[in-house]
Amino acid sequence: MTDGVAKMAAPRARPAYRRIMLKISGEALMGPQQYGLHPPTVDRLAEDVKAIHDLGIEICLVIGGGNIFRGLQGAAQGMERTTADYMGMLATVMNALAVQSALEAKDVFTRVISAIPMDQVCEPYIRRRAVRHLEKGRVCIFAAGTGNPYFTTDTAATLRASEMSCEAIFKGTQVDGVYDSDPKLNPDARRYERISYDDVLARNLKVMDAAAIALARDNGLPIIVFSLNEPNGLAGVVQGKGRFTVVEPG
Ligand code: UDP
To answer: 71 C-alpha vs ligand 1 centroid, how far in Å?
Structure first.
């Protein structure tokens, strides 16, 4: 004690969220490449995830598989659609393992949890077990999408976010929010600060596929669209700083 005044520790800013879902497309792991995994890019993503983990936020992660294989492309080349979709789901498992490896190299404990059981590789999905991992501070990486063909990892992210009682879905993209047209093609494109699920669906805006938007709407899950290209962007956005769009009830 000094001068009769008790020194109090400076209050730590409380994160705005307790538990979130982060959805990253497979393409976000390609870096400058046209295909596959770019280790420095995977490492940067792991750094971003660690930064929000350090804030004390419980993190669910869903990573797509489009950098390796997409079911629709396989089907377009004559492959049976469901087989092609299973290949896409397997691609998400590879991405999940790559991100797990990058996170654990930074001392962030993780579990890869697959919708399709493959016990030698990762855990099967058991909801209560996944919740326990989150409570213990482990990052849960949900792989193999929903486990069903004809779905996407956006829908998987929304489904798992609902099951895990996440407060919001953070969708990392190449641009800093939702625009009324592609800002890379139209310099006059207008960015929304907020937009309703119904407007996203009615205007066919490319946020997530329609099934994922409808599921988020029906479960009242806000979707926060932000850019993965801003350094420390995710840590800012989870604290309400920076540029992003919130998709929420109208
Ligand atoms: N997929 C699927 N069911 C799911 C999730 C994914 O069949 O529940 C397949 C589908 O073929 C998809 C591929 O996995 O094209 C990769 O997922 P997605 O396209 O969502 O990846 P992203 O675009 O996010 O990289």
So the answer is: 7
How far, in Å, CA of 13 to CA of 26, rounded? Answer: 32
Q: What is the pLDDT along the chain (250 residues), one digit of tens a residue?
A: 334 444 455 555 566 899 999 999 999 999 999 999 999 999 999 999 999 999 999 999 999 999 999 999 999 999 999 999 999 999 999 999 999 999 999 999 999 999 999 999 999 999 999 999 999 999 999 999 999 999 999 999 999 999 999 999 999 999 999 999 999 899 999 999 999 999 999 999 989 999 999 999 999 999 999 999 987 789 999 999 999 999 999 8
Q: How many CB atoms lie within 10 A of CB 135?
A: 10
- Counting ligand 1 atoms within 8 A of each CB, the residue from 152, 169, 174, 213 with the most, and so the one to mutate, is 152
The model carries a pTM of 0.94
Ligand 1 centroid from CA 14, angstroms: 35
**CA–CA distance, 207 with 171 (Å, rounded to integer):** 8
Atom of ligand 1 at shortest distance to CA of 154?
20
